[in-house]
Amino acid sequence: MITELTDSNYKSYSPEEYLELELNLEIGHEYINELITQVPGGTPNHNQLALNISSTLSYVLKRQTYQVSFTDQRLWIADRRIHTSPEVMVVKTQA
Hints:
The chain has helices at 15-22, 44-60; strands at residues 29-32, 35-38, 66-70, 75-77, 82-84, 88-92. With 95 residues, it is α+β, with helices and mostly antiparallel strands. Strand 1 and strand 2 form a beta hairpin.
């Protein structure tokens, strides 16, 4: 079980522990510098907005060296020690 951060409890996790735990959970979480916090689930409006943004970016960037990802794509930001799954992500690819 993942311990949420409160004033009365604290457990630190390694990035590897987070990924192992996250694979077996139905509720989304993100890892921020040793802490694991629950992320809210999407609403239909939220999902439609993310889809619209993703579709627009895919269309605008289709002939450029970018890849657009929509939901469930994990992102590791090493210098911030964050594992997250943004709704929409754009990554520059090799030419």
